[in-house]
Structure formats: structure tokens, C-alpha cells
Amino acid sequence: MANIIEMPKLSDTMTFGTVVKWLRREGDAVKTGDMIAEVETDKATMELECFFDGTLLKIFIPAGGQAPLGAPLCAIGKPGEAVSAPAAPAIPAAAQPKPAAAPAPKAAPASPAAPAKAPAPAAAPAPAPTRAPAPAEAPVSGRAKISPLARKLAAEKGIDVSRAEGSGPGGRIVRADILAAERSALDTPVASVAGRMPEKTGPIQEERVAPVSNMRATIARRTVESKNQAAHIYLEVEVDAAPLLALRAQLNASLEADGVKLSVNDFILKAAAKAMRRVPIVNCSWEEAGIHHHPVAHIAFAVAIDEGLITPVIRDTESKTVFAISAEAKALARLAKEKRLQPAQYTGGTFCVSNLGMMGIERFCAIVNLPNAAILAVGAVVKKPVVSGEAVVVGQRMSLTLSSDHRIVDGADGARYLGALKDLLEKPALLLI
Fold first, then answer.
1. Is 292 a catalytic residue?
2. How does pLDDT run across 150-207, given as a tens digit for each residue?
3. Domains (range + CATH), the chain
């Protein structure tokens, strides 16, 4: 009897996955440990491992197709063994991956007068799966000219694939080619008139309905869940960033030869964990059984990528030096942008830091990343007049906003935590101990 490989749960928030491409074809011999497919989750693209020895008899989900957790992906067995596709579980309604495809059928029912036919297009989003396998039709001549992942990325970014040069086998267009085409379009110089950029006319962008990626669908679901479930409370404090900037500059100058370059965020990650020693209630999670008090701080930090947002985790943050945190954060951010993070690297965070200061945002309120009790929003360091003694001087100030789940963290708790955080950042030498 053939063995069935099902869609595995490759991330803590995953409810369905997309088969990016098959690394083996039907009829190929496979063995335990072989990587047979690439699967896109809501966090990253990961390889699917084979757990049986035999022949890949049947592929049930073609490249580009989506499947919920537990759905049969392929069958492994003896050569020539007959196999049929088992029944697949349905994708939960709350995690429908392609909500953007729904508006398309609405235009079609506009002409029919009979309202009774309106529900028919609602069931018709089945074309979304039929559209996804389309890339698999290209291998008529033996090899597709564009990979399913590259086709999907081109659609999301509005890239004309006919202008992309394929660097894959046989001139096949791959993901890197689409990204190169995007960079080329952004780098194209635009002629100026009298030193001014010429005014552009026409539409701002091509009108289209872009399919919702797995990651974007998960972000939409989890942020709405957070705002609906957690009673958010927001507290803000302004920090004197001058001592921190001075220490950072001194350390970077002395260690430049060693290739060390600390960021403000490295100190904030360390301080966020160290402040929990004084106010541990923010290092908790809301669970059905009660409030889970975590013994150590695993600090996650937000990384923006093309498809959305992901939060890699630095474990046991308090026990690590600022230098170790800096090196680990850079490595994790690089893996995040390359979509090569492993589940252990982005799950299990007990607190989160979101820093938009590096993008010029002075202050903002972040949404709590459930089941965490709080998230810290970090603004830009701004020069402004401040009162020092009896004089007004130029100060360097940074805004920190704590968003907390009021079911766990009260206002006084959040105020104490921000006070501890402010004290550590204004006495940054304490972070080097």
C-alpha cells in the first residue's frame, strides 16, 4: 500500500501551504531524507522531506497549488502500484489564502438580472486553484520558462516577465531574475528639466487585483485577532538618547577594525530583556489555563520583507552581550530577507520590539503579537530643544511606546516597565555589564 505524504505544519501560525515547485517528478526513485518539494508557508519557503523509500507514484497538488494542513501532497510506493488521491481537508474559512480573488466574480454577475444566480460566483473562487497550477502547463516542451514562485512574485510586483532575462537552466526565469528586473526598473535614471523631476501623468499604477500571499493572509488574520481579543493599552515615554549615541559611537570607533558595528536597536533589545528583571509581568502570555509567566526573555524583533513582516527571535536575550545580540540580529535579519528562516528561529518569542525609527518615524503604536503581553514601538532619535537646569539646550530624544494586553498588564505595570527601560537606556553602560 502506497504511503501518503501530507502537508505538514511548518510554522506555528500555518494553516495552509503553497507548493512552490516539485524537486522530483512522478516515477522518480526517492528515499528517506530526500528533499522532494519546496513549500511556501506564511513565514518562509521550506523544503519538504521524504519519509519513505520507493517511487514517487503520484503528485496530488501541482506546483503553484495550495493545500490545507493534512492534505495529501503525493504518494510514495512500489513502481506501478495503483494509487488514488485521498480526501483532502478543507482550508479553514478564517484562513482563506486568496481573499483578493473574490472581487473578480462580482463583475460577472452585474449583467445577469436574475439575483438567484449571485451565489454561483461565490462558489466559483475555485478558479483561484485552477489559476495557480497554470505554470505547470508550460513544460510542454520539457521545461517551464518561468518557475511558479517567479511567476507569482512577478504578478505581485507588476513585473512584465517578458522583460526578465532567465538565469535558470535552459533560460528559465527564477525568483532572482524577477528581483533583478525590479531593481533595474527602480535604478533607471529619469531625465530632469531645470533640475526638477518631470511630472508624471497617467495612472499611479496598473489597476489589478493581486493574489494575497500566505504571509499577508496570516498577517491580516492575526492582527485582526489581536485587536479583537486583546484589550490594548498604550503608554509612551521619551528617552534622552544622547548617552546611548555617545557610547555606541565610542564602541564602533574602537572596534571598527574588527568589523563590529552596533546599532541603536541592539542596545534596545538588550535593555528590553534586562528591564524585565525589574518588571517581569510584561514577559507573560495569555493562555486558556491562565497567565503563563516566562522564566527567560526571548525577544523578537520585526523585520520588513517584500511579502510583509516576520519576527525572528533572539533567545535568552538578557544573558547575551550587546555584541552577541548584534551579530545574531544581523544574521537573522539576513535569513528573513532571504526567506530562509527555520521555524525555531521565528517562534517562541515572549516579547517583541518594532523599530521604525530607522525609517524616520518619530512615534507610533504597534499591535500586540499574541500571545505576548506587550510589544515595544521604537521611534527615531530627534534633535529638539530641551530644558537642562535653567537653560534650553539641544537634546537628542527618542520616543518609546509600549502596547500592552490589558488582560495581563495594567497601566501601572507598563509605566514601571517603561521607567526601567528608560533608566537603562539613559545609563547605557549598565547594558555592558
1. no
2. 888 888 888 888 777 887 777 778 887 888 887 776 655 544 444 555 566 678 888 8
3. 3-84 (2.40.50.100), 99-187 (4.10.320.10), 231-432 (3.30.559.10)
